[in-house]
What we know:
This protein has helices at residues 6-18, 22-35, 40-52, 56-69, 74-86, 90-103, 108-122, 133-142, 146-159, 164-176, 180-193, 198-207, 215-228, 290-293, 323-327, 359-362, 406-409, 415-422, 425-428, 431-442, 445-448, 451-459; strands at 3-5, 251-253.
Amino acid sequence: MAKVSLRIYNREIESLIDQGQTNEAIAHCRHILKSFPKHLATYRLLGKAHLELKRYAEAVDIFGRVLMSAPDDFVSHVGMSIINDEQNKLDDAIWHMERAFESQPSNTAIQGELQRLYGRRDGMEPPKIRMTRGALARMYVQGELYAQAIAEIRAVLEQDPERADMQALLARAYFQGGQKANASDMCAQLLKRYTFSFDANRIMVDLLPATASAVESTQVYRMRVAELDPYATFAKGSVFQSNEVADAAINLERLEYKEEPDTDQNWSASLALGSAALTSEASSASLEPDWLKNEEVSDPFATNPSTSTHTQNSSETSHQIPDFLRDAGWGESNTAEQPTSFFDEEPVVNELTPAEIPDWLKGQEPVAQAQVTPPQTQPAQPVDIPDWLMDNSKTNQPAQSIDIPDWLLDNSKSAESAQTESTPDWLSGLETPQAESAQTESTPDWLSGLETPQAESAQT
């Protein structure tokens, strides 16, 4: 492979994208990221290539991660705006296009695109795009008017304190304006959220003095900057002057591209942003594992071995019925197909076998009640009545007399017989005379003549 400088390689990739050779451009980007896995410029080109192919999911992933490291990246904001516009996310499209306008307020193409988006939202395109506070603040920083820039940036952050691009710009304005303490505090806030914030790490490299106590801390920030921009390692003065380093300072081997039917090969490139490493998700689905490629592997959950690609007898299969199921009446099926789940089986209707009632429960069986039938319907079926209730369950019959035990029969005789049986023999001859004499003796003489009339009146 021939060697080429990193910057020239990036320019060639950009030319390939402009010429429509996006698949080859993606292959070269992945080749570079194997050697420089956090190179921002290569990631920017990779996202642009995916956008040209309308692979919006991959492009959003790449652009989003680049913006975590460089929140004011012009190409990423334009790409995100185009994708959101295609997906009818108008508010997000306008927001990203406004950030691109703040980065390059004099760009006529960006102004025209922003006018079109405003026209879609408001129903009428504005005649001119007004200058925003963010765009004005960047112009002040470029003109070295740091006090005015700081005032404008603070006004923007009061309305939206989470804007990372304004926080990075404020740290840079503090640093270039000589307010090193404020710059250090702002960089510390940014690095808590985004570990690989490009501007914050570059400011910390230049802020820390070149003393023995600060060498270790400075080395950490310098290493992050070098990963994001390898040319910063060769900068003689500030790391912000990496553009002045010669192109030949960083070289790598050029990829000998061979066109393939599918360029979406598995690849991984990490760009650490925040607390996690960036891993590209633009790869295709993973290759089919070996255990799926074997078409002769039978289903481990199949209940019928005859459905396997290899014809076998049921006695030779590995699906044996357990002994406790075989004792319960289960047997091996000879059918061509069986349901794999008991939820697929149809319910069996009217095939239940009635159970036998134990003898000790037959005597306590409850009385069956006749079902109430609605009017003008068929008469209710007669209810079977146990034998032990037959005598008391007859309808339209008077109640039968209760059976009297034998031991009570002697006491249920008539009074005359009881009196006769209970009278002693020595009194049997005196009973009638005594009664007659008692009646005669007990009646006074003055009532004897009235006895008959009173009895007759009593009868009347």
